[in-house]
Amino acid sequence: MDIGGWRRAPNGEYVDVDLSGVHARNVNLEGAKLSEALLVNARLSGLITGLVVNNVEVAPLIEAELNRRQPGRGSMAPSDLAGVHHAWELVQQRWQAMCERVGTLPESLLYRRVDDEWSFVETVRHLIMVIDSWIGVTILDRVDRHPYGLAPSFVTDPAALGLDPRAEPSVAEVVAVRTEKLAMVAGLIESLAEPELHRRCGNDGTVLSALQTYFSEEWEHVSYANRDLDVLTGDELR
Fold first, then answer.
1. CA distance 41 to 161
2. pLDDT of the residue at 8
3. Residue stretches of the chain with pLDDT short of 70
4. Contact 123, 110 (CB under 8 A)
5. Which pLDDT score is estimated for 19?
6. Domain that holds residue 109
7. What is the pLDDT of residue 4?
């Protein structure tokens, strides 16, 4: 069977496929094998683990380089309570810096997307969902999520999670909800003792692993927001 003009060989392989210039989003390439590929000026982003390029596993190299470029990023995977407190301090500092930055920008920019990635408002809405999911539901056993939360596109029924896909909150509204959610995180972290980090919660995880996921989400999405604001403010200046 041919798919989109691709020729499939009898052994199940697709051969002589031209994907030059393609832009694929939310693509599952788990277990994929590309031989004799031309990856010239290609760009990949997403969850990249176990990827081997020319017999070299690249994920550890990527992680090391990102941590070098972004001091503090490596602290988002703490192993003890002191590390948790340090990671939380960095999260708060970065959010405060982000608030100071967007406070100087025209509000219209905060609703604009770059390359169809989330706008600043949408990013904050996603972080609301992240806190509700990893802190509220997973660690604190709460069942409610704020309807302003924004799920990734692979979640096919966000309403089932208590989210409102049709919501169009303002900047002030999402920041206010975000502030409330950060207070919930602060209360949890302030109450934690070292043994509590190893309590089982969620799907075969621990309080510590849930916090690591939360911290990582915070770091990456604030980084994405800053990246896109760099582009938008640069456009405004031209």
1. 39
2. 62
3. 1-12, 15-16, 235-238
4. no
5. 73
6. 78-237
7. 52
The C-alpha R_g of the chain, in whole angstroms, comes to 20
Structure tokens at 126: 């996603």
DSSP one-letter string for 156-185? S-GGGGT--TT----HHHHHHHHHHHHHHH
Structure tokens at 181: 């959610």
Closest CA to 178 of 218, 142, 118, 143: 218
Into how many domains does the chain fold? 1
Q: pTM of the prediction?
A: 0.83
Q: Please list the alpha-helical segments (H only) found in the chain.
A: 59-69, 81-102, 120-130, 171-191, 207-237
The per-residue pLDDT for 102 is 96
In Å, how far from its chain's centre is CA 43?
Answer: 17
Using CA atoms, how far residue 137 sits from 158, 161, 226, in Å, is 15, 11, 28
Q: Which residues are CB-contacts of 2 (< 8 A; sequence separation ≥ 6)?
A: 8
Distance of CA 22 to CAs 14, 19, 51, 147, 153, Å? 16, 5, 20, 34, 19
* CATH for 90: 1.20.120.450
Token readout for 43 is 């760009």
22 vs 43: CA distance, rounded Å: 11
